[in-house]
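Protein entry
_____________
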Amino acid sequence: MGDVTWTTLEFEPQERHRDWNWYAGLVAAIAAVIAFFYSDVFFGIFAIIAGITVIIYAVRPPKHLTIVINKDGVSVNREMTPYPAIKQFWLDETDKQDKLLLLVKGSFIPLMGLPLQGVTAETVREAMKAHVPEVEMRESRSIKIFEQLGF
């Protein structure tokens, strides 16, 4: 079978209320004030840094990803993950957009979720089955909760 290639966005852009950033900043500021009030300086600083980080990541647009499945492995924006490093895969077809889930050993992010766009789940399944076992997996509930909150 030949290479399977598609281009997708890193994440689905969220429509947020224009005051969303203010709310996130207010929550971080309140957490920091409470932490400083109880003499927990480290948590206060952490709350401020976390709030700023959340706002920065919320306003940035998603990156375009080019995903290639070939005889050597799975490549995301030319960063190759060879098949021996992939323990298993699963095609999550339960959401509005299908995702290829990869369990990668020795990676900082062990479960990669790659949205499918312009390619069918069956095409991806046929390309992956020859190299990696298909085992049912799910993304963690925290990812689903954060997606519902608009992250």
User: Anything to note?
Assistant: The longest strand covers residues 86-92. The beta strands are 4-9, 64-69, 73-76, 79-82, 86-92, 99-104, 111-115.
